[in-house]
Amino acid sequence: KAGVTQTPRYLIKTRGQQVTLSCSPISGHRSVSWYQQTPGQGLQFLFEYFSETQRNKGNFPGRFSGRQFSNSRSEMNVSTLELGDSALYLCASSPGQSGAKTDTQYFGPGTRLTVL
Amino acid sequence: AQKVTQAQTEISVVEKEDVTLDCVYETRDTTYYLFWYKQPPSGELVFLIRRNSFDEQNEISGRYSWNFQKSTSSFNFTITASQVVDSAVYFCALSSIYNFNKFYFGSGTKLNVKP
Averaged over A22-32, what is the pLDDT? Predict the structure, then answer.
């Protein structure tokens, strides 16, 4: 099976712009989660989607949003970029279960976003 | 609240040495999962192991072994006879079983294995 794929792998944007990152989960996986990784804050949970519904979200401002499509692919959007948004954004997929249960998550290679 | 502490920021060993990476966690939940992931320079987090809070049996997989002790809230990872390819950042993570896949990660331990 192909792993989790993320596009693009690298992005350079300027402050104030917006950006959309894409994630394709492992075939058959229905849950997609997003994490932000920075040297200062480490790995932080952004949100999780299952069957096109956001089930959980972390403590990030409303500038960070996401969605999931019927084929389980997911996108996350960051509007009005700030310098502090420079990070590695990791997407993870898991088989997904109804209810609240947690699964093992399998991560993609990430998108490295640089905000100038 | 849930929290994972990896007190070792960076460890350097010489090839063939054994090394243990420490992980201490905090949670009020009675049912949870613990994980270890490896992050090579390429950036992708590679899944290594998942442990259920009800299963305290130690696990061995080749040169890797894990010691889970609920009494001390620890889930330590040992690499036996380390190799250069083991060089990476290792993360310990915690999630309540009813947490919609929200993982809490430790800050990671960077392992340098020198030839």
Answer: 95
Burial zone of A62 (CB within 10 Å; 0-12 exposed, 13-18 middle, 19+ buried):
exposed
pLDDT the model gives residue B105 = 98
Which pLDDT score is estimated for A6? 97
Residue B100 has pLDDT above 90, yes or no: no
Task: Tell me the torsion sign for CA atoms B48, B46, B74, B95.
Answer: negative
- What is the distance in angstroms between the Cα of B13 and the nearest Cα belonging to chain A? 23
Q: Which tens digits make up the pLDDT trace of B55-93?
A: 888 888 999 999 999 999 999 999 999 999 999 999 999
Measuring CA to CA, how many Å separate A89 from each of B53, B66, B96? 29, 28, 23
CB proximity B40 to A under 8 Å:
no
In this complex, the residue of A31, A108, A112 whose CB is nearest that of residue B101 is A31
Q: By the 8 A CB rule, do B49 and B58 touch? A: no
Per the listing, tokens 């390429």 go with: B42
Chain B contact present for A64, CB below 8 A: no
d(CA A41, CA A85): 11
Residues of B in contact with A105 (CB under 8 A): 47, 101, 103
Residues of B in contact with A99 (CB under 8 A): 98
CB-based contact A52:A69 (threshold 8 Å): yes
Residue A41, C-beta contacts closer than 8 angstroms, at least 6 positions apart = none
